[in-house]
Amino acid sequence: MSRHKLVKALDLDEELDDFDGGAESDYGEEVGAEDKEQLRLGTAKVRAVLGPEVSITDKEIEDSLWHYYYDVDKTVNYLLGQRTNSQTPKKTKKQNMDAEVKKPDAPFSIADFFSDSPWLNIPEDRRGEILIEPLYPRGKLLGGTSNPDGAPKSKLAALAAARKKKENQRVEDGQNATSSVALLDKLGHKPRQAKSDNALNLSNPKPSSAITEQTVNEQPRKYSRRKSKGLESPQNDQPVKEGFIRSHSLASPDIEKKPEITPTAGPSVFARTIFGAPTVSQQHDIQTSNRYVLAPDTHAEFDFTGPSPDDIVTKAQNTKGPTKKSHKQPPQPSSGDKSVNAVVQGVGDVTIEEHKVRGKTLDVVAEFERSKPKNAANFVVIGHVDAGKSTLMGRLLYDLNVVDQRTLDKYRKEAERIGKASFALAWVLDQGTEERSRGVTIDIAMNKFETESTSFTILDAPGHRDFIPNMIAGASQADFAVLVIDASTGNFESGLKGQTKEHALLVRSMGVQRIVIAVNKLDTVQWSQDRFDEIFQQVSAFLTSAGFLAKNLAFVPCAGLTGDNIVRKVDHPQASWYTGAPLISLLESSEPITRALEKPLRMTVDDIFRGGVQNPLSVSGRLDAGNVQIGDAVVMMPASQTASIKDLEVDSEPAEWAVAGQNVILHLADIEAKYLKSGDVVCAPSAPIPCITSFIVKILAFEHITPMHCEVHKGRLHAPGRITKLVSQLDKASGAAVKGKKPRMIKPGSVARVVVEVDEQVPLEQGGRVILRAGGETIGAGLVE
Amino acid sequence: MTDRRRMNGPSGGTAPPFFASSLTSKTASPTQRTRAPDELRKIFLKTGLTPSASGSAYFELEPSTPTAASKSLASKAPALKLTCTVHGPRPLPRSAPFSPQLLLSTRIKFAPFAARYRRGYIPDAGERDLAAHLDTTLRGVLISERWPKSGVDVIITVLEGEEDDPWNKGHLNENERAGGWGMMSILAGCITVASAAIVDAGIDCIDLVTGGVAAIVRQPTAPLQVYLDPCPSDHEEIFAACMIGYLQTRDEITELWTKGDIKASTDGHGANSMGFEPLVDQAMEAAVAARLVLIEAIKESTGMKVQTSRIGHPKNAAS
Q1: How buried is residue B222: exposed, middle or buried, by Cβ count under 10 Å (0-12/13-18/19+)?
Q2: What reaction does this enzyme carry out catalytically (chain A) (predicted)?
Q3: How many CA atoms, within 13 angstroms, populate the side-chain half-sphere of residue A324?
Q4: Mean pLDDT score, B195-219
């Protein structure tokens, strides 16, 4: 039976009767005392007539009596008539009603209610009107007293009160709205009732707040909920995982999924500035328990489709054993295990990259000895600016026919054009345009010449004090030095105070022991012997004090511009007092220097350049120690990059090998130019030079030394650094530390041990000679310890 | 393309100076997660931030570690602050071709100061990617047939976004910037805040969409586990993460973004304790939790609207 028929069947008159009855009981109070007495007597009579077997309450009898005005016979008839219907009609109605309303246990659903009605065409009788009650002021009695209890009510007010009371009672009992509930009320109430039933059925009762929210979610739903069956079906044959159960259950009412609390935070300081002061609603008290009902369960059900744990273990044991073995006894081709084979295969595939350049792997030292080389010597030409160093060397080269007449004539012509005719010889060595226009040597010029016994390399150092670093670079490559002194009046004296002195000290501290002093420009003083002697005495006194041995000093008077006493002996009558050899023979008499051929390779890079199409990257320099040949692998420090030597030139001639002391050009392969800079050191890979930032130096001080900033020079290399600590002052003769306090300052001329730190790593090793300079002045030179 | 109209800051990173004290102090080490695995960071969400927009919302995730604990500015734990404005639905310009439905355009922009790495004014690849994700998410909830010939702009500004590793050693590589793990929680926040702003604008939706993130994470001491709402700086290593845009009442997903290698995380510990589906489920849960906040925020704002205008019933206006 559908609902609307039930609703139709309701008899409204009956319903109203019910209320009349209810109201009547109120009137009962007004029954007088004599009426009561009559009722009591009437009741007793009726009971006597009816007999004890009929169960009728006194109330009913009294009602009937009241109705029939205490006529006992009529009352008995009425009551008996009722009995035949087995029950009073009023009761029957009421009970039927109850049964019918309660019968559908299933929740009332709107969907069911409208199931057979077409969409947007609901029959009239099923339509309901939703009325929103206007907000009238709460109803009060007009003109009533302020005391509602004591005053007698009007009939209407009493009826309303009774209704209200009844309604309240019903709600309290939890009963359904029954008799007096209007159609609209039913529609409104029923779903809610159903819902609370639902909630009770579920194991997890919701917090009450969630209920209201759910009603928000559920009631106005217009679209059918999509069931996640699609997800479920492929999993049918597999054990359903917990996660799936959960996600599926989400599709059905989401009550159990609901987290207990909302993770709401109060506004931050920033948010408060945006929104102003927090309103009351924002002040949720944040609950302390932060748990959601749904703890994620990390233990999923075991998946039986995969291998069992035992299988995994045994498999692991099988694979592990042989792999371990393969480490100990490398190739086991017979082993069937795949992983082992893979390892073996992998090892086999590894190829060590070979050097592209193949050398002949010569025994360089033996080759060197077999070649019976000419005595080779590098010498650096030093002296004060404008002492005539370059001119002297130019003349030397010209006289030895290294430079031909035509070239020199050309130089002469050009020099005359710019008004510097006397510089023509110097231009043999000073090739740069700036050097020529300024008439000053700027960078080391290198040239080579040979005599019958010896092959020489000239390193023409700049004399100007701005270019001392270049001079240091040149001096570091020299075996001995030629000190050129300007003998003309005034220039010698200024030279001795200037770079003559500094250069001499520098070359001494660079390790140069032998020095040839060419007293130049003697033609300007008419080859005066007195002048020569004066210079001889002053200079030898100074050089001896600087640490040169007297036997290693050789003096020669000469004139670079005219070429007297350089290659040929002077034939000037005024110079007849000099009986010694010319400069060239003094140079030749230099004893051969022992080379560190067997030591690990060291070469300070002097220059980096592109050595031609075939050789994209070449470095030049002098081999400080060791030997090298084509095909050798070398390490560039401090970049720590390996390279191989593709080709080799010794003194600009192609060669297959080179030894210490030779000036070489190495053509490199397998390295990029970015790793190279001048001052780097080419090393043997077996013994690369260490790169350090802090080291102890035993120095000879030229200036006052305190802990200070300085520049560290070593050959081409120069790096900014600082003297951090003065360790001790040393005795000049014995080299032992002077006892006493730690020195706070080191005076010029004294020897001390200091700690030097540099900002970047520099390749330095023990025995390396370094120069310390600060503010354009050489402040000290010494030996790394 | 360069933007010549504005005074652009340096395009590269400008790392704030690190002071010795902050490096040596304990807070310098990556923060540990103090929340339970299934606990979200607290969310602050409020609509009606921008009066001139049709709808707007402000979203905030509290920092995973309380800021009071760390003393220095440099070691401040990352938080998430988003604003969203919705303009529209408004008529399309005359020049635009006819469109039978609502045209959605999304835009996510990091404020230049949002992260340690300074952003330019023109959206970069990562921001455009996030916006595309958000677009697909919102497309699934809007009932766009109801608004022909009109467009709606959803603009999100990230005022403060978390980074994967605030302690990165000075360099951030490019792809990390485009889509680190932190991007997932940012997107999840973007979805939630956009949802709130769309409701605030009164645009018809089939449901409220919220974002949630879950990740498979290895903590130094604990085994692999799924964590809700992971904060990348809290965790030592994140294997995989999943971001979801979820409609709870309809049980639908409009956006799913997973990242990482779930397989790699399972191999180490045998068995299939971690799988794709559990990860998605956990992300869903995070989204469900965010939804509660969203509903509360909407209720609150609607309540205030009703209070001020006294029209309609709260229930009718809510959704």
Answers
A1: exposed
A2: GTP + H2O = GDP + phosphate + H(+)
A3: 6
A4: 91
Give the range among A306-310, A393-397, A771-775, B70-74 with minimum mean pLDDT: B70-74
Site from A245, A272, A298 to mutate, B interface, most B CB atoms within 10 angstroms: A298
Listed range (A147-151, A214-218, A396-400) with the worst mean pLDDT: A214-218
Interface of A with B in 122-161 (CB under 8 A): 132
- The minimal CB distance from A243 to the residues B252, B281, B295 is found for B281
Q: For helices B182-201 and B125-139, give the axis angle rounded to 10 degrees.
A: 50
- Kindly tell me the burial class for residue B3, based on how many C-beta atoms sit within 10 Å of its own C-beta (0-12, 13-18, 19 or more): exposed
B60, B217, B293, B295: best mutation site toward chain A, by most A Cβ within 10 Å? Answer: B60
According to the CATH classification, is domain A364-588 in 3.40.50.300?
A: yes
Identify the top-confidence range among A310-314, A481-485, B37-41, B140-144.
B140-144
Nearest alpha carbon to residue B209 among B183, B230, B189 = B189
Tell which A residues from 64 to 103 touch B, by Cβ distance under 8 Å. Answer: none
- Which residues of chain A lie closer than 8 angstroms to B45, CB-CB? 264
* Tokens 């350089």 -> residue: A566
Identity of residue A472: I
CATH topology assigned to domain A602-683: Elongation Factor Tu (Ef-tu); domain 3 (2.40.30)
In chain A, ranges of CATH 2.40.30.10 domains: 602-683, 691-784
Residue A153: CA count within 13 A, CB half-sphere: 15
For the stretch A742-758, what's the b/e string if a residue is b when 16 or more beta carbons lie within 10 angstroms of its beta carbon? ebeebeeebbbbbebeb
Q: A306 to chain B: nearest residue by CA? A: B271
**Tens-place pLDDT, residues A327-360:** 444 444 454 566 666 666 666 666 555 545 566 6
CATH, residue B102: 3.30.230.70
pLDDT at A222: 36
- pLDDT digit string (tens) for A115-150? 777 666 777 777 776 666 656 555 555 544 444 444
- Any CB–CB contact under 8 A between B255 and chain A? no
Six token digits for residue A217: 């979610």
